Amino acid sequence: MLYQSRKPNPALAPWVESYWQVQLDAGPTPKCETILPNGKIEMIFALDGNYTVVNRQTNKIHQAWLSGMQHEPLNISYKGKSNLIGIRFHTYGLFPFLRIPVNETVNAVEPLKDVIGKLYEQLFESISHANSTAEVFSALDLFLVRNIDHDKVKQFKLMSEITRQLNVLPEQPISQLADRMGISQRHLGRICHDHMGVTPKLLARIFRFEKSFSYLYSQKDEEDFKALIDLGFYDQSHFIKEFKRFSGMTPEEYKKRAVESNNFL
């Protein structure tokens, strides 16, 4: 497998975390990857290979798709040769480039042509005919710079600070966060809904879940639930219930599958 990534044009850095490319040959037997909720948003282009992306709402094969903010696991199956190009947005990063409400993309996987319309053909053609990965990433830079809505970037500092606070302290009461930000709790909820598509409470739970499965994956010995309780879980029962809600499996099932599989995130 070949993986490479690059940071975007500095003008896009507030919104785009990175570009990436994965090239591999999975062979004739279908492979499956499970993608767990992590608070990120992806635009993905399959230059080679056909992919089936499944959650409870989605069962589609796409040449290019938008994977919005997820709060359920995604299962992606594929076989043969693959060449994937991706744009990884920050949690709030899709908002300035989208012409539909962000909440319509939550927990969904949509064909990119349905999301950005005629611009899709222009973008896909430009990256398909690029002669190198560097040219692909430059084409993505050019496309995003040209299509950012500058009227939508005014709340960047507030959005980034809200996201940072919820990520660092996912267990904090939303009322305290609103007081710290100097805004009402209602206004905080509206900003999160408009710019990220989810409530601040759900976003905090996604971040807390991401921290918990990252912790479990790194644990080599018997799980130390004290560290998980420090993330804001009331007790072990609460942790197991939340983990299953976001992953579809118990922590023990996750740990077993993650250790045994190379295709599990």
Gyration radius (Cα, Å) is 19 Å
CATH class designation of the largest domain: Mainly Beta
Going by CATH, what is the homologous superfamily of the largest domain?
Jelly Rolls
What's the average pLDDT?
A: 89
State the separation between the terminal residues, measured CA to CA: 16 Å
Please count the beta strands (DSSP E, at least 2 residues each): 10
What order do the strands of the largest sheet run in, or round the barrel if closed?
1-2-9-4-7-10
What CATH architecture of the largest domain would you give? Sandwich
Taking the sheet with the most strands, its summary is: 6 strands, antiparallel
Order of helices and strands: EEEEEEEEEEHHHHHHHHHH
Number of helices: 10
Overall 3D form: globular
> What count of domains describes the coordinates?
2
Give the amount of beta strand, in percent: 15-25%
Quaternary status: single chain
